[in-house]
């Protein structure tokens, strides 16, 4: 137990990953991976969690496992430095979930704001699958199985981390110090916390067609950016424009760095000046969109190219995942053994148990 720094995070394979995932978590993971300063790093594809609300669509989940793996590699996750694995291949996670279920009440689960929103979005109101309802518990198993200390995720995952911490505290209180309490690591830039869709809607979603994927081709990226939602009141170039709720500026907040001005828009020293001009009036949407497009193309081109390279050897990607699963399984099995010992359900590993019982019965205490 203790002072190790262990990073863990995962994604549901329900679609290819997009730039919201990138600024919300992927970019940070790769930076953490490259910075070193941690003992272990685990990144996993949460296919079992994806099935909790896609039970009738296993093919979708299966197809997206490899898509997400390619997105990981494309962004620069390196299997030499991080263990990349598939959740469903680690049965120890189910066992942990089963025991953690005893530590959580139904009303506590009902209060989870992310789950509440998801239930509404999926029109589950009267027919919530139990597995879906309890996925925060299984997520606590994902986190604690690897003794994660640091979980880099988006803001919507905060309730899951809180639930995990509560389970850890309650477990340790009842059974003695066994599990490690994890901490969330949120993006440091507000625009990255929750990147809106290109239509300005709060959430990027495949069905709304408002995402820019990491695998998107250059002309598609440009098309999506040029038709992006801005300030509907900004009609003529000379009109003053609004920055708040203006998706193009939100994206600039998330992606623009000072050197982008030097390269693509040297008339302005920085983003504040660009915003001020837009607010005063006299700066057209097209010019700002072209600037954003130049930035996005610069960021996404190398990712797209690496993705294409990795997709030339799909068997190698599966082999990488298989090896990752092996490593992950050994780690989770270790934690599960500790948990079972703490809960006194380790009958055949406890060398003293039989002797104790022999003595107890011999003394006729029963
Ligand atoms: N719930 C996460 C998502 O929607 C995926 C996930 C599952 C996860 N288990 C996790 C993230 C454990 C971090 C840690 O993307």
Helix amount:
40-55%
Report the bound ligands by name, code or SMILES.
tryptophan
Rg calculated over all Cα atoms: 24 Å
Quaternary state of the chains? single chain
The helix/strand series, from N terminus to C terminus, equals EHEHHEHHHHHEHEHHHHHHHH
| Proportion of residues in β-strands | 5-15%
What is the mean pLDDT?
94
Low-confidence stretches: none
Rounded to the nearest angstrom, the distance between the terminal CA atoms is: 37 Å
Strand order of the largest sheet: 1-2-3
Shape: elongated
Strand count: 5
Structural class: mainly alpha
* Number of H- or I-type helical stretches: 17
- Main sheet summary: 3 strands, parallel
Question: Quick recap of the structure?
Answer:
With 366 residues, this protein is mostly helical. Helices cover 55% and strands 6% of the residues.
